[in-house]
Amino acid sequence: MRRLILTLALALTAGFAMAQKGTFEAGKGTFLLNGKPFIVKAAEIHYPRIPRPYWEHRIKMCKALGMNTVCIYIFWNIHEQQEGVFNFEDNQDIAEFCRVAQKNGMYVIVRPGPYVCAEWEMGGLPWWLLKKKDIRLREQDPYFMERVKIFEEKVGEQLRPLTIANGGPIIMIQVENEYGSYGTDKPYVSEIRDCLRGIYGESVTLFQCDWASNFEQNGLDDLIWTMNFGTGANIDQQFRRLGQLRPDSPKMCSEFWSGWFDKWGARHETRPAKDMVDGMDEMLSKGISFSLYMTHGGTSFGHWAGANSPGFAPDVTSYDYDAPINEYGQTTPKYFELRKMMERYNDGKKMPAIPKPAAPIITVPKFELTEFSSIFNGNDPNLDTPICKGSQLLTFEEVNMGWGSMLYTTTLPEINEQSLLTADIHDYAQFFINGKYIGKTDRVKNEKSITLPPVKKGDELQILVEAMGRINFGRAIKDFKGIVSDVVISATINNIETTWTPQAWNMFALPDSYEKAVDAFLHNNDLSKPDTGLRLGKPSQFATDGKDLTTRPGYYRGYFNINKVGDTFLNFERWGKGQVWVNGHAMGRIWSIGPQQTLYIPGCWLKKGRNEVIVLDVVGPQEAVVWGQAEPELNKLQLERTNKHNNIGDKPDLNSDTPAASGQFKAGNGWQTVKFPAPKRGRLLCIEASSIQGSGDVVAIAEIYAQGSNGQRLSREPWTCKYADSEDEGGNHLGDKVFDLQESTYWQTVRGAGFPHLLVIDLGSEQTITAIEYLPRAEQGAPGSVKDYKIYVK
Ligand code: GLA
Ligand code: CA
């Protein structure tokens, strides 16, 4: 009440010169906008994932769906790319974004983090925080909190004038993001709340979003609590606990996941339109507010895509998300189905017209990238001199580099036998000896060692490390890049196990920036020039090893001409792995494994006449050709081998083992714990399902935890899926989905594959297990949930 009077008083004294001031707050069972019941129908869209010239178009597209609000994160690391240097201009102009929303009659929900997740590099946190090696992220670490407050204050300078109390469109502000999936730390969450209160004033409505399973962990008494869940979820179940604790609270699904994000090496994710529309229909019929995440996903341009965890699962460049508005801002069948349903809740009013596309679609004929500058030939000034020399292997952060690649070189002792090199490298490492390619380790596959051939004293070992996006989810967000362990070489010489740890390293930085890429060509733009391999000290190594000149790591440049500007999709499926710039705009990462093979090229960044394309390919292309197409290719995998875990050689023989536990699970949704009669030690956790609840023969499991001897959950960081007898690969329901920290994703077998079903998890090392926790699918009736089980630890 006091708040209301204050707002009214302010409104009266300010006169009529400013936009109308308003109020937004939680009333009994509903939100109140200017005192009247209001259902939030929010569309989540992300300003850095949409080119600035297309913002208004995308907002209008949301409005034509019947939405009344847009919901945005604020991405700290795109505004403060260097500590203390802030940018709120152009594509970063968040105040302008809010004004455009308001101009189009939309309210705005702001989620300023500091952490945002969002499949965004480091969940939105700036990498330079990691220069303080022992920093505790998302905790009350003094340096972290100091930087958070400076950043939030800067955001406040932009957005404070735009809150509803000040006549702007901002109705609510979120405190942190899903803290329950990170830990329990009310003092930290409270400090973020107080920081935002201090900036936006007492009148602002603050909320916290979490999952139904964990929102109580950090729920603060004076904040609104909202739930996040996906298409298909059992909605009553999702709000049951909230209803018990706060029967009068307005209900809101603050992230209703329309689709899902894609990661490199796995199929494109989709979710049925019907499940999404039915879920939203149900919510609206019950007066539940929502934000549709994503309504339009857009693109994670440049190096801004993050990576999921546990495991290391870097996200692709496209953030299409199978959302109703596709990556390039156009309607989909899902869009029309949603619009039809939303019309029924539009107070009898006509729906706003669907705007015409922001740009036409054009195609570009095949063209070649004929200019080349090798990473290795010493002509790249970035690599003339090492950024660092010494006995210590440094990470990117330690040499003050945020993104890109680093070359580590050392000379080897004489090793007459084959040897094994072991190292923990983030993320994709290629090994060369005297410039000759030996092999790679890929963090995505948990590869940590490689066999070296016999070498002579003085041979040079080169390790080219490319970083992908930093992890954006879970405890692993503290994700240093580069070589993060010692490099250890071991071999058996005359029956004696010998190890070497090289102590003299040269490190060459290759930051990913357009300026550096252009620089590289100033020094070598002629393909006919021999590749001298100068810096590697082995002249013409590449030229004589029989490899085609183009199948090499380096910068490639070419041009295409257009006489009409429009959006297009450039196909890079003949390329290896790296980054692309078009007319100086960082377009994103490419990787031949797919599933994404094209990059979305917005017409607003093209021009009539000649357009420039630069590719930094750290692997080297099959063929340095690119072509434009009218449709994206988001679902073409080109894998060395399948993702499935069905190699029969990996299946443990359990015939003579006694189960650690056996019995029957209960039917229905929610977590269940199975305590073992006695602790069991082993490295493999095997879950055998011999029947399911209800009919059908498909088994599904959403999440599994194992408890150690102290009853605490074991870290799932080192877990890998060793074996699954059956997996629905087409739907991305692979075995590793049971430990991806996402309750909405699950392992699922294919129809018709006979019982029993077996899932084997490699815990990474021997562990003592006392119990397991099991979560079936989140949908109504928990489809595919297990009945009879046996659990083995081996
Ligand atoms: C969570 C996060 C979002 C996003 C989604 C998955 O709900 O809050 O930022 O990462 O998961 O797309
Ligand atoms: Ca899961």
Secondary-structure map with pairings?
Layout: H1 2-14, E1 24-26, E2 31-33, E3 36-38, E4 41-44, H2 55-63, E5 69-73, H3 76-79, H4 94-103, E6 107-111, H5 142-159, E7 170-174, H6 186-200, E8 205-210, E9 224-230, H7 235-245, E10 252-257, H8 273-285, E11 289-293, E12 307-308, E13 313-314, H9 333-343, E14 367-368, E15 371-374, E16 388-390, E17 404-411, E18 419-422, E19 425-426, E20 428-433, E21 436-442, E22 449-452, E23 460-466, E24 482-483, E25 488-493, E26 496-500, E27 505-511, H10 514-523, H11 541-544, E28 554-562, E29 568-571, E30 577-582, E31 585-591, E32 598-601, E33 609-617, E34 625-629, E35 661-664, E36 672-689, E37 700-701, E38 703-707, E39 720-724, E40 747-748, E41 757-775, E42 788-793
Parallel strand pairs: 4-5, 4-11, 5-6, 6-7, 7-8, 8-9, 9-10, 10-11
Antiparallel strand pairs: 1-2, 2-3, 12-13, 14-34, 15-28, 16-27, 17-23, 17-27, 18-22, 18-25, 19-24, 20-21, 20-23, 25-26, 28-33, 29-32, 29-34, 30-31, 30-33, 35-42, 36-41, 36-42, 37-40, 38-41, 39-41
Helix pairs in contact: 5-6, 8-9
Bound molecules: alpha-D-galactopyranose and calcium ion.
Residues 702-703, 737-738, 740, 742, 745-746 line the site of calcium ion (CA).
Task: Give an account of the 3D structure.
- β6 (107-111), α5 (142-159) and β7 form a beta-alpha-beta unit.
- The strands form 10 sheets. An 8-stranded parallel beta barrel has the order 4-5-6-7-8-9-10-11, surrounded by 5 helices. Strands 16-27-17-23-20-21 form a 6-stranded antiparallel β-sheet, with no helix packed on it.
- With 794 residues, the chain is an alpha+beta fold.
- The termini are far apart.
- It is 15% helix and 29% strand.
- The site of alpha-D-galactopyranose has 9 residues, from loops.
